Amino acid sequence: xxxxDLELDRGxxxxxxxxxxxxxGGFMGAHLAxxxxxxxxxxxxxxxxxxxxxTGNIVSTGLRGIIADMARRRLFHLLITTCGALDxxxxxxxxxxxVGSFDSDDYELAEKGVHRLGNVWIDAPSYGGVIESEMxxxxxxLSGPIATYELCWKLGERISSEKSFLxxxxxxxxxxxVPGIVDGAVGYQIWLNSRGRLHLDLMKDETLLNNLMWxxxxxxxxxxxxxxxxxxxxxxxxxxxxxxxxxxxxxxxxEYDGSLSGARPREAITWHKISAKARHIFxxxxxxxxxxxxxxxxxxxxxxxx
Length: 306
Hints:
Layout: H1 14-21, H2 28-43, E1 48-54, H3 64-72, E2 78-80, H4 83-94, E3 98-99, H5 106-111, E4 114-117, E5 120-123, H6 124-140, E6 144-146, H7 148-159, H8 165-171, E7 176-177, H9 185-194, E8 198-200, H10 202-215, E9 218-224, H11 227-237, E10 244-251, H12 265-270, E11 274-284, H13 287-301
Parallel strand pairs: 1-2, 1-9, 2-7, 6-8, 9-10, 10-11
Antiparallel strand pairs: 3-5, 4-5
């Protein structure tokens, strides 16, 4: 196949542009085009268990809107994420975050009571205070053992916001599994306020994952970022088959320190977490750039679904 020059016009859709980018060469541009193709194949496979993993920092940004829309449209059957995702979804449903700068004076921000997450500014009362008060009220009504996906549904019901991905997962009964539930403000508040009445049952989460893996002939994953959410998805997909049949990684992490976050799909093949026959791609890009572009093309390709 020859390298194709891009020929753009004002009326071109994201889907059309990605189609051209698949023939342009151009390094990650072509990878992004293939990521779109893989996700579309996965969405059209009725026998495929579709899983999304993502890191909590994503929810502090406007990408929260895409995650929520994915849940609203039921594009994925299972979400795996971190406690930080719960923290930011809850906090942003009650307060505002602000666009700041990576080059801010952090000492000055600290004096003003502002947390910095990259170029996102979070006023301290909009985070800790909101989560503390909301979780104190939520925990009052909970008792006994509870899985993290059940906790996420309870939290989504309490948030009750069209912008909340947890709310849409509760409404559509999409499990959200959080293997690192105590590594964040929501988990801490459960510990602080439960006083022994509430127990997080991680084994119930694992039973759900086991059943989902064995109940589906094929599995597909979109993995945004790395960390525990990425690994938990990959760990479980080795069961009930030969690993993922579709895999799209979007991350800026490097593989040369041996980290799971930077590991490429081909490495997961050696662990049987991705099938040797799988369609897979690693897009080395900032997810806040790559995902909106790909998701717009997906929406333009899907049947009308309000």
